[in-house]
Structure formats: C-alpha cells, structure tokens
Design goal:
Low-confidence stretches: 1-8
Number of strands: 21
Strand order of the largest sheet: 17-14-16-15-19-20-18-21
Shape: globular
Largest sheet: 8 strands, antiparallel
Distance between the termini: 34 Å
Helix content: 25-40%
Number of helices: 14
Mean pLDDT: 91
Amino acid sequence: MSSTASGKNGTWRNWGGNVTARPARQVAPASVEELAEAVRRAREDGLKVKAVGTGHSFTSIAATDGVLIRPQLLTGIRTVDREAMTVTVEAGTPLKRLNAALAREGLSLTNMGDIMEQTVSGATSTGTHGTGRESASIAAQIKGLELVTADGSVLACSEKENPDVFAAARTGLGALGVVTAITFAVEPLFLLTAREEPMPFERVLAEFDQLWAENEHFEFYWFPHTGNTNTKRNNRSAGPEQPVGQLAGWFEDEFLSNGVFQAAQWVGRAVPRTIPAIARISSKALSARTYTDIPYKVFTSPRRVRFVEMEYAVPRAALAQTLRELKDMVDRSGLRISFPVEVRTAPADDITLSTASGRDSAYVAVHMFRGAPYQAYFTAAERIFTAYEGRPHWGKVHTRDAEYFARVYPRFGEFTALRDRLDPDRLFQNDYLRRVLGV
C-alpha cells in the first residue's frame, strides 16, 4: 500500500494531513482498459474523476467527492529502449521503484527531486523538481505520455504526436486526463560526488551566481533565526564509489535529520520561545562531508518528519533580494520558525505550466512542522514571493488563483484552451482546479 493514508468511512487524507476528502467511490484499475472504463462509468453516473498518487501534495489538487482512482496496480516498467535511451513506465510506479529498477539496468534519470515516495505521474503532474544548472524537473525529462481523456479514449502524445497536448500534459495538474504511462529519457548510470558544508548566509548570497555556475547541482538550506546555511553541491564523478558509511549515514540522515530534528520540532511546537536557540544548535549540528554514489542515493533523502510546505519559483536573478526580504521579515515578525528554508534552481523549460516555463528559476521553500500554525508565516512569505511574480509549486500550499496565473504564465491561455477541448464538461474538475485554472 502506498503512503497515502486512508481513514475510516472511505475518507482519504494526504501525507501532510492538511487535506481530506470523501470520494463517492475509490477504484484501483489493473489495466489501462479498466481505467478507461472507470472514467466512462463515472461520466455516466455524473461523478467527477481524480487520480491520486501517494498524497504528497499539500494542496487539494487530487481531492474529490466523486471517483478517486488509485494507481497502485498500474506499476512497473513496460519497456526499456536502449537505442532511443528511453524507459516507459506505468503511471502508478513510485519513483523509488523506478530508480532502483533503472539502476539494476545500469540506467538513471538525469535529475530528480529529494523525495522519492511519489508516483511518477503524481510527481510530474505537479511539477516536482530537484536542483540543476542545466538539468530541469522530472517532467522535463519526459519523451512521451499516454493519457485517458474525458471520453474514455487513450491518447498518446510526444513531440511528434499530439505535440500541443504533450507541451501541456507533462505538468498537466490532472486537468487534461488521467496519465497512464510515461516515457522518460534515461542515460547510462553515473556517479555523483556530493559535497555538503556549512556556509554563512551572506557569503552564499554574495557568491550565489558563482556557486550556481560552477556546480551541476547546487542547493542550500538556510536556518531562520541564524546567519547559517548548509550547502550541497552535486557533480558528476569518475569515481570510485565512496558511499556514506552506514554509521555516519544513520547518524546524519536518520538521527540528526529525522530523529533529533523530530524531537526539536516537538519541543519547538510546545515551547516556541526555544526555537531560535534550537535553530542555532541545529544549523551547526551537520558537519561538512563528501561522498560519491549513484544518482538516486545522492539526490534523495528520507523524510520522516511530517511538515506542511509552500514553495515558489522566482526569477533566478531575483533570488538574493527575495531571501534578504524573507530573512528581514522573519527577524522583525516575532515568528518562530523551526524548519530550514530550502533553495534550489532550474533552467527555463518549454512545458506550458511548469514553474520554470520560459524563465531561469530559483525555488524558495518554506516549511512548518505538521500541526504548527503556518498561516502567518506562509502569508508573509507569499507576499514577498508574489512581488517578484513568483509561481507556486502546484502541489504545495498557496493562495493564488487563475487571474494571478494568467499574469505570471505567458502560455496560461494555451493551457486553458486545450483543457476546453479535451475536457469541455470538466469531468476532471475539483475545487482546486476551479480556483487555479478558472471555470
């Protein structure tokens, strides 16, 4: 069973615990034909349809009171094409299973995010990304898609076949149909060397352009209430493999990043005034380390501490100013923020509603421990992000609507026109899509 929580009485809950839904029925089709039949039946019964992955979105993008399609039986690799260097995978396949299967075949995705619990279709449909100078989001690595549309037909799309659908459906928000299979570009398995080291906040901002230019994958975490960051650079390596030792790995990734961090969150939630002191200790707890391993073992890390998150893509050139304003806001506000702020980048891509569509982007993610009051912090942060025409991650908390998106996405009208053509009766509609795409 996936990490999606299903409560009593058919109630569905997301991973962050901030979204619940009570669908009229839940379906787990074992084939594309069964899925198409479920879509046709829902239509006949006058019910809306949503597909849900592992519930890692913090928005209600997958919530419905109609038919909830669970893809856990639509998993596995369909084909590996070594000539074209592509792999076609069923939409419900979790990223962690794809990564492990590719590694066994001596293959890898070029880039990925830092969590690999999500299904491939959930991750790409919401624009999940890692960090990269040249390599972009997971959706940008898609070469082909298979989609069940509102009339129950199966549509194949790629740069050559239905290219207008391909341009939009790679990050389709679940608005254009139900994705049933994805073809990814892959490459021969390679090694990455990760170098993690603390660095002062002001130095990272002063040297950001250089750090970005000199590293294939650069990211950093800033600890609010401190002038400290932890930086991470990932670059391709000739080897040899030098994975993190088991004990060191357990200490850094499980004990510090999950165990102690979880305890610190509990203390911070119970006694907010302790948070700045905890932040100073946390920001110094992780020491510098270097290790070399296959990509998914470097890009991804376990996330056992539950949180709620908002993330915005701002123009890369506006990053330093955005972060300085965020730091000033936190310092002035009296807010107590116990979670680090994560900063990553992506090059411009050609996907209609990708957060990096047509512009080089930097991502700023703010988090709060699950159950802690996040509204004041997120509202103040969102005010800063939107001043720079920020684009929120489709699967993370935000308050933007269609009117705003029409302003910050030059191709917004292209997406809504395609939706009108593919789903004129709004079979795949829900409250979230009504807000972000308009009726």
